[in-house]
Amino acid sequence: MTDEELMRRVASGDPAAFAALYDGHAARLFGLLIRLLPQRADAEDALQETFLHVWRHADRYDAARGSLEVWLQMIARSRGLDRRRRLHPGLPGPAKPEVGVPADPLRALEDNETAGEVWQALARLPAEQGQALILAFFGGLTHEEVATRQEVPLGTAKTRIRLAMSRMRVLLQGN
């Protein structure tokens, strides 16, 4: 079943499709959230908020705008950052991930290959764009925090991030 078909079924209220979506993506999203939030319970709550949002707004997914994985990661990242700002104001950066053995070694290998492609694409960006994107998405910083860290106006930081994301989309679609 394609991601688009899966999301159509979720949008129609199909609990089996939602369970398949959760089973296929929860572990990776939890990994993202555990890096953003200092407490495991906070990451678990943010994951629940993420999937509640997906259940309620599955009809908003548009495959033409990007992959399902990226859409889910953006929702999770947003929920995680909101929770981090609300519960831990002034937290300097994302928490360290908990170290453990991956539940699915083949999935971990696939994740490592994908991560390698992402880092190769990041290396092809102009330095200031790549740094802004890393600060925002891997560092969990807001646009304002990126601007402060890079010592540039807010609009410049936003432009760098937007240009970097656009270029990354092109670079990664070529793979």
Give a quick summary of the entry.
With 175 residues, this protein is mainly alpha-helical.
Q: Your description of this structure?
A:
- The chain has 175 residues and is an all-alpha fold.
- The chain folds into 2 domains: 1-88, Orthogonal Bundle (Rna Polymerase Sigma Factor, Chain: A); 105-175, Orthogonal Bundle (Arc Repressor Mutant, subunit A).
- Helices cover 73% and strands 0% of the residues.
- It has helices at 3-11, 15-36, 40-57, 68-87, 105-123, 127-138, 143-150, 154-173.
- Helix 1 crosses helix 2, helix 2 (15-36) runs antiparallel to helix 3 (40-57) and helix 3 packs across helix 4.
- It is globular.
- Mean pLDDT is 81; it is low at 94-102.
Average per-residue pLDDT, rounded, comes to: 81
- Taking the alpha carbons of the first and last residues, their distance comes to 22 Å
Number of helices: 8
CATH topology of the largest domain: Rna Polymerase Sigma Factor, Chain: A
Strand tally: 0
What is the general shape? globular
The assigned structural class equals mainly alpha
CATH architecture of the largest domain: Orthogonal Bundle
Helix content range: over 70%
CATH class of the largest domain: Mainly Alpha
Q: Could you list the spans in which at least 5 consecutive residues all have pLDDT below 50?
A: 94-102
Radius of gyration from CA coordinates: 17 Å
Number of domains: 2
Strand content: under 5%
| Helix and strand pattern | HHHHHHHH
Can you identify the CATH superfamily of the largest domain? RNA polymerase sigma factor, region 2, helix turn helix motif
